[in-house]
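User: Before I run my own analysis I want an independent prediction to cross-check against. Here's the chain; please return only the structure tokens and, at the end, one sentence I can use as a sanity check.
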Amino acid sequence: MKVKNFVLLIMTVVVCLFVLYPSSYAQQDPSQNTSVKKIIIQEPEDIYKLSVDEITQSKAGQAFKNENYEVALEEFQKLNKQTPNDITILRYLGLSYDRLGQYEKAIESYNKALMLFPYHVPTHFYKGLTFLKMGETNKGINELTYVQSSDPEGIYGVKVKPILSQISGKGVAQVEKKPWNFYGRAGWMYDSNVIVASDDKTLRGANADTNAMRYELDGRFVYRIFERQTEQVSVEYGVSQSLHDDTLNEFNFHSQRAALQYSRIDTFFDKQWISRLRHDFNAGFLDDNLFSIANTTSLNTSVSLMQQTLASFYIRYGYTQFGPDGSISTLFSRDGHYAGTGMSLTFFNKKQTHWISLGYGWDGADTSGSNFDYSAQNISILVHTPLIEKTSVDFGVSYRHANYRNFDGSLFTDSRDRQDDLVVLNAVVSRSITDNIVIRAFYRYFNTRNTNDIFENRRHISGLEVNFSL
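Assistant: Structure tokens:
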């Protein structure tokens, strides 16, 4: 079965299940004798190691009740070590930090609690109050507005109404979470092999210019057109531009892209599954000439199957049309169907400050030109660790083997079969300047070995970039 037929079959089945299968979190409200359904997000059972009574009657709980917050903090720290990953202990730990004026540590504790269950209303409530004390009014409003929409008639929903009303001065109805975000990136880098030329100078030309400085700009606007607790629909529009110096400005690349994404949360086997169905349109221009038009549909699902782990699965299918196909389109046309599937498994430490991710995937192409039909397997490993405050480092290595099964080298200097073996090393140091600005220094090394010398090459890319969001 060809790549396109196989992937179309798989994606049709998966998408039908994704769209048509009734969500396990949609349950009939037993208090209402109507057909209206109430959305209930089921809390994972393992986020409560101790009961509320056990915590409040403990030495830590009693100290907090008596407003002896220094003792409470010390005791809750001990309790957290003895009984890690308890969402109530982490919340009280955050409250103790808050009462002592250590607001950043309070937010850190709340975030750890929300990693266990992102929809925990009490934690969002106290996190919002701490943001207000820090002077982070917009962040506080976002947290408290979430509480209001999630629990309008509950204890915390009732508490939050006068707070939001006082902040806005115009009533709660005037306070809404911003429905859009903008993400930008500006980078400067050195590329040793822009044209991906062969290592063999006799094949590429001894005087061929291959290296250049490159400047990159990228912007992406995201607008959420629909959102509730368990579902979200968003649209995106992005633009990117790369500029080369030296004699390689013919490789300047511009792209415009648009996307539609549907996200939802389901509960299966007592686990929260986050799924995203997405379609991307991308138009690329090389030196102001149309290079490619790509349409890609993908489905990604993530779930924490065990404590301190995250498993992700994906499948994608697309059709891409390129520019001029060369003198013999039956050999050199890259127009065709592209597909891939794979998974990754990430392991975190208890504080979730360090992690390691392992990945495996397959991708392939069924193109009009036989020289670009391929099947590839990919494996990767990525490690993340903090260095000093607000600074972290990521290091990754990946290996890819691609077999170009119908390659015809009769028109090339080297006519042997083409089988790529690509190793990529990647190192990144990131420094957070503010919550919305991150500076990164990076280095990437590409080494492609091949049975055909024309396609053997090496490449070094290093530089700096600034990432920001609005």
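Sanity check: The chain has two domains: 37-173, 180-469.
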